Amino acid sequence: MTRLAAASLAGTAIEFYDFLVYGTAAALVLGPLYFPSFSPMAGTLAAFAAFGAGFVARPLGSVLFGHIGDRHGRRPVLIWSLLLTGGATVAVGCLPTYAQIGLAAPLLLVALRFLQGLGVGGEWGGAVLLMAEHAPAHRRALWTSFPQLGGHVGFLLANGTTLALSAALTDAQFRSWGWRVPFWAAGVLAALGLLLRRSLTETPAFEGLAERAEVPFVEVVRDHWRRVLLAAGAVSIGFAVFYTVTTWALAYATAQLGVSRTLMLALIMAAVALATCAAPFLATLGDRYGRRALCLTGVVALAVWTFPMLWLLQSARPAAIFTAVLVTFLALAPTLAVVAAYLPELFAPRIRCTAASLSYNLAGIVGGALTPLAATALTPPAGVPWTVGLYLLTVALLSLSCFTTLPETALRRSAVPAEAPA
User: Fold this and answer.
1) Residue 391: inside a domain
2) Is residue 42 scored above 80 in pLDDT?
């Protein structure tokens, strides 16, 4: 289990590094480079729209790689999704700007972002199922929390690289070529990930299937569409809050509040690192007291904290910004710690890779693709952005209602259940 956890976490971290490094670049430099005919605000919106293309592609990646995972095994998903995401990320780092090739630049940027999304759409399901279907039932939330942490580790890698370059280079150097370095590094990381994953074994749950779904996506849509939509609505708050803080807040603080890019990146990274340490402990609570109980606790905490977080952020004081971000991630931690165990347990093994991945990545459209766009559009020119808080509160209430409707799964002590709970 330790070897599987290490390979799963490392691969997921690499793929989310690839996916998230774009978000940081979009907040800082991509608008002027690829959408220069727009105003600064419109350029940022356009860069975030391209950012959203990756989230739109993620459910399609779930269908594509979910079919592979449910028909041919979880292991091939982990290899091919990593290759696709890594290749697209390196290509973004090599992409000429609008000044060099004109309209082709933003079009190619969106296309490469779409390919990134396809790869990440398959990665999460493959990595999580690798752990969920190997783990003992009474420790499933704990073991599946490791690939789930890959998103945070990938974020720290992406922002750490950007922070180091931002501190070492002049602003002109960073905008000229420095921002490309994290994208080029994705090639080296992808090679390391493939090395780690080449010896992984297939999961017992997949090998034990008596019959495999002919077309998993058709079966999911026909028989399980309601649960997929409920699960997507439930998880959407995690995406919304994560990308509000890591993408919108980064652009808002640097562009409107005058906070330095280096300081803002450092504050966000420190908060993410501290909150990540709580995940294994919270996952253990999820194994003991139930997945849904932890998720509901986290959603309520996020709803209560939304407006204080925005008030502290708007102050532009480093201590206040750090407090705002840290408490936000601590409130998000209970949900993130157990969702990787919860979603697979909601579906039967024959369609689990497709259904769990599709649920998770549909949530990404609501929470990840729309949030930076909506938050940027709703941000007033001055004062506390309360309208952003109303948007987040709406997503939290949606998530809360969906979690309330979904069943608890933790009491099912068979190895990832053969049938989803009623």
Assistant:
1) yes
2) no
Please tell me the distance from the alpha carbon of residue 400 to that of residue 113, in angstroms, as a whole number. 31
The answer to whether 87 and 118 are in contact (CB under 8 A) is no
Q: What is the pLDDT of residue 40?
A: 67
Going by C-beta distance under 8 Å and a sequence separation of 6 or more, which residues neighbour residue 135? 1, 142, 143, 144
Burial class of residue 2, CB neighbours in 10 A (0-12, 13-18, 19+): exposed
Q: Return the pLDDT at 44.
A: 67
Contact at 8 Å (CB) between 250 and 321? no
Which two tokens mark 395? 């997503």
- Which amino acid is residue 50, in one-letter code? A
The interaxial angle of helices 318-345 and 261-276, nearest 10 deg, is 40
Number of domains in the chain: 1
- Which amino acid is residue 95, in one-letter code? L
Whole-number average pLDDT of the chain = 85
Indicate the residue type of 364: G
pLDDT of residue 291: 92
What range does the domain containing 317 cover? 2-200+216-405
Which band of pLDDT confidence, cut at 50, 70 and 90, is reported for residue 414? very low
- Top-confidence residue, 41 or 173: 173
**Quick one: CA dihedral 305, 124, 48, 53, positive or negative?**
negative
Nearest to 244 by CA among 23, 19, 17: 23
SS3 content of the chain, % helix, strand, coil (to 5): 85, 0, 15
**The CATH number of the domain where 278 resides is what?**
1.20.1250.20
The total number of residues written for the chain in this structure: 422
Q: For residue 419, is it within any domain?
A: no
414 in helix, strand or coil? coil
Please indicate whether residue 10 or residue 173 has the higher confidence score (pLDDT).
173
